[in-house]
Amino acid sequence: MNTTIIILILGFLFGAILQYANLNRYNVISGMATLENFAVVKAITVAIGLGAIIIAIEIGLGFATYHIKPLLLGGIAIGGIIFGAGMAILGYCPGTLPISLGEGSIDALLGIIGGLIGGFVYTILLSSIQSILGPDLGSISLYTLVGQHQFIFYILDIIIGIAFVWIGFILIVSARMAGGCTSGYILSGGMQLSVSSLVFAVFVFAGLLFTGKYFYK
């Protein structure tokens, strides 16, 4: 099957699942910023856990390869905080904007326009802010650390994957028992157990929660 067609099919499925689970709703992400709704956190932890195990198997069978982004401490820290703050204020992440736009949400359209402008400005300023993006610690992941020992790698990968799934499961069960409620770089990199993606996630949630605390007073 043509690669473009596969991408289109997977894209439609991804969007349909996000919409069905209401993960593109403004109140879901803004609720996460105020620690009132943990639906996105649960979805991310379960997706990373299952994805880490499945991707490791695919790569072991030769169906895929790792694509680990470098650990640029300055860029990840600053970018993560800005990204998290933007998510809290806008109530969307980049992956949910097109879905909400398809539903007719004008605020999602404004978010997409703002994102395009932001990318354009970043490209213009890149040469002048290059110094604050580093240091570059290279592409670090579980595979780059212990990949030469295949048995150890797969054991650790499965253990970590199960731990992520278990955390997501506990969050879902506890929320249901209490009667309560049930985001590309973080997911794709997290599934590869990439250090840069996991560190980025920490700063994103830090920016998200800090902004949520003071923006939604």
Protein described:
The structure is a single chain. By secondary structure, the chain is mainly α. It has a domain at 39-93 and 137-215. Helix content is 72%, strand content 0%. Mean pLDDT is 83; it is low at 178-182.
The N- to C-terminal Cα distance equals 51 Å
Fraction in helix: over 70%
Task: List unreliable stretches of 5+ residues.
Answer: 178-182
Number of strands: 0
Looking at how many chains there are and whether they match, the oligomeric state comes to single chain
Cα-based radius of gyration, to the nearest Å: 18 Å
**Elements, N to C (H/E):** HHHHHHHHHH
Can you summarize the main beta sheet? none
Concise description?
With 217 residues, this protein is an all-alpha fold. It has helices spanning 3-20, 26-33, 39-60, 73-90, 97-102, 106-129, 142-146, 150-177, 185-191, 195-215.
How are the elements arranged and paired?
Layout: H1 3-20, H2 26-33, H3 39-60, H4 73-90, H5 97-102, H6 106-129, H7 142-146, H8 150-177, H9 185-191, H10 195-215
Q: What tags apply to this protein structure?
A:
217 residues, mainly alpha, 10 helices, 72% helix
